[in-house]
Amino acid sequence: MSNEPHQPRAVPHSLLEDVQGIALGCALCALGILFLTQAALITGQTAGLAVLLTYATDLPFGIWFFLVNLPFYWLGWTRMGARFVVKTVIAVSLVSALTALMPTVLRFDYVHPVAAAALAGAVIGLGLMAVFRHGASLGGIGILALWMQERFGIQAGWVQLGFDGILFLAAFALLDPVLVAASLLGAVVVNLIIAVNHRRDRYIGR
C-alpha cells in the first residue's frame, strides 16, 4: 500500500456557486470603488493606467480602458481559455453597472482619504479573491497576474503590486501627491490580501 497522503479530489464549482461568488466579488469591488471616488482617490491596475492616459491625452477614459484591456483579453483567451474570458467579461460588465448604480443608493457625508483607501483596499481585495476563485478576473493586469501564477508560480498579488508600483510612480508626476499617497495605501492593501491569501498550495482546483 502507498504511504503517500490521500489528496482530496477537486470538485468544480457549480453554475449557482459561480454566479453567487462572482456577484458577491463584483459587489465588494464596486463598494471599494465607491470609497475611492468619495475621497477623490485613484485606483491601480488597467483602470488606473487608463485614468493617467486620459490626463495625458485628449482621449476619454472609456476609450483608453477598452484599448489597454484588449491585449490582456487576447492573453486570457489564448492561455486561459474561452470560459475564463467569458466570465471575465461578465464580471467587468457587472462591476461597471454596480459602480454606476451604487452612488444612487449609498452615499457618505465624509470619508478621510486614508480610511477610504484602507477600506477600499480591503473590500476590493476580498472581492477580487472571490472573482479569482470562481475562474474569472476583472480584466487587464488581473489576467496577466493569474496567467503568471499558473505558468510560473508567481503569486498574482505580487504581479499586481509590481504593476501598481510603476503606475503610482507615474501618478506622482501628474496628480496631487497627498491623494496619490493615500491611493497607494489602498493598492498595497489590495495586493497584500491577494498575495497572502490567494495561493495555489492552499486551494484545490477551481
Contiguous uncertain segments of 5+ residues: none
In whole angstroms, the N-to-C terminal distance is 30 Å
> Which class of secondary structure composition applies to the elements?
mainly alpha
Coarse morphology: globular
H/E series, N to C?
HHHHHHHH
Helicity range: over 70%
Strand content: under 5%
Number of strands: 0
User: What is the count of distinct domains?
Assistant: 1
InterPro entries: UPF0750_membrane, YitT
Membrane topology: Multi-pass membrane protein
Subcellular location: Cell membrane
Pfam families: YitT_membrane (PF02588)
Describe what this molecule looks like in 3D:
The chain is mostly helical. It has one domain. It contains 8 helices and no strands. The protein has helices spanning 15-38, 45-56, 61-80, 82-101, 113-133, 141-152, 156-171, 177-197. Helix 5 (113-133) runs parallel beside helix 8 (177-197). The chain starts with 14 loop residues before the first helix and ends in a 9-residue tail after the last helix. The relative contact order is 0.19.
Strand and helix map with partners:
Elements: H1 15-38, H2 45-56, H3 61-80, H4 82-101, H5 113-133, H6 141-152, H7 156-171, H8 177-197
Helix pairs in contact: 1-4, 1-5, 2-3, 2-7, 3-4, 3-6, 5-8, 6-7, 7-8
Keywords: Cell membrane, Membrane, Transmembrane, Transmembrane helix
Membrane topology: Multi-pass membrane protein
Protein name: YitT family protein
Notable characteristics:
mainly alpha, 206 residues, globular, single chain, 8 helices
Summarize this structure briefly.
By secondary structure, the protein is mostly helical. The protein is 71% helix and 0% strand.
